[in-house]
């Protein structure tokens, strides 16, 4: 029996008025452009020295132009189409031209001659934008300066937005730089200058500092496939990626066809190149289990699981399980992205296929060789991923209200007795690569916000990692973060808590979190409280790794439908010793627990692996619990895997589609060390 559940009560955090420098402005309305001679943008640091597989030549800057494009705005440049002409130029500058109605893109790499603070400037006729990446990876570019109207030739001080914030660059490091310019009528020109750490000004940026990139880093048309033989089992976790494969070859599409050899494991990895900029959807099928991972760049350490399934499908059967299909993912034309497939074959036929739907709606099944390139990185991917660490810049606590279209990146913030970052009534904000720590309050507090993304950040020694307090339009994404030792106490103590988050496009996925007993006092690791996704876009809690919980007598792993709430799916999570319970549906409609693995050893506070219960009058209806594997011991060392309250409607799949007491569940489901951020 379920011993006792305490009602979760939301905790309203009192915001303290704080001042902080507004970080990188990523977009601006036209009415915000005002003439001035002084820059109002804040300082920002671009010091990530991660390298990519892009090859470099002795050329300087690539200049692409699109003819017969009307209008004066940069947004009208058709960058997703083939340019009318392409040439190389020797500097980030194109002098006067009377040709009307065209768009232009300049792109290449700038190499910092010395370590220090640089300032960039742009001048153009008509509108122009200057983008600089944190590395040589174009996908990490951010807009640092722009003008929405014309300037005279090399007139860099007409508008405040023409000047970037101070940017720290590392000596010898290459940084991707891109200029977009739209010309309507009259004269046309564009120029970029920079101020070096010494105070010297180069106008335009000298050709000696510039290089251009080849279109691809490796031979296209194939991708790397590795095979391990005599590997028993049907689960992807049994693919021995930390060991050398028995064989390695290249294949000409993202697919392995029928193979009757039993007990094999496969990894297919390499790079996929997006043909156009826009929204892509991936899907995977196979026999037996498989996972599809995609990085935000060419860096394998930034890969995230985007689709998977735990059981077999027929050949190219992409719709058997909901988890086979990814969410919509925006990719940039010409950009390479690391992609990886893990596939485990037990007995019977063996196959795995990946397809994608490209912008415009066409589907390529499987992804063909002309989109692919073989893997060229480290032979020990597990080692390379775990060795990565982030560099942060110490910063004070940040509190914004009514702010939008900004990025907060690379900050280390100790909160003290207030949240490290507080946002109120904000939207279109990206918090990335930050360290939030040492606060008796939460790491990030979001009140009445929408379209907020928190990713690749590290939380430790805070009451709760991310607390989202009311969102009427959704778009709250907390993915690919790491958490260590949440301090609580109740009602705080979560890695992530959603409180009245409503609307589409919200996710808490592919995070990793650990609470060490005696060093933390957590409640639920992930709590979805009175929150509602939509039927077509449920709240996703997918692919998280969670270890540790207790000694709370009510806290545990992942809670859906807490005090009501609907349309949430918790899938493909792995939980080890998560606390009093593993996963739960505590009310609400159309909530689902799918394809998770849960193990809990006997401890003084442990109770049950999965439960469904209607609490405080919030009925649990139309639930689904299927595809799960559970082995969970209560405080008396009785194997108490599952419990269904008499006041709750029995979930679909409850009796037939789960493995209660699965013998292969143990603490070894998760690596002994899996937190890599510091």
UniProtKB/TrEMBL annotation:
Keywords: Signal
InterPro entries (UniProt xref): Beta_helix (IPR039448), Fibrocystin (IPR052387), PA14/GLEYA (IPR037524), PA14_dom (IPR011658), PbH1 (IPR006626), Pectin_lyas_fold (IPR012334), Pectin_lyase_fold/virulence (IPR011050)
SMART domains: PA14, PbH1
Pfam family, one: Beta_helix
Gene3D superfamilies linked to this entry: 2.60.120.1560, Single-stranded right-handed beta-helix, Pectin lyase-like
Domain PA14: 56-209, 218-370
Top-rank taxon: Bacteria
Cited PANTHER family: FIBROCYSTIN-L ISOFORM 2 PRECURSOR-RELATED, POLYCYSTIC KIDNEY AND HEPATIC DISEASE 1 (AUTOSOMAL RECESSIVE)-LIKE 1
UniProt name for this protein: PA14 domain-containing protein
Organism: Mucilaginibacter straminoryzae
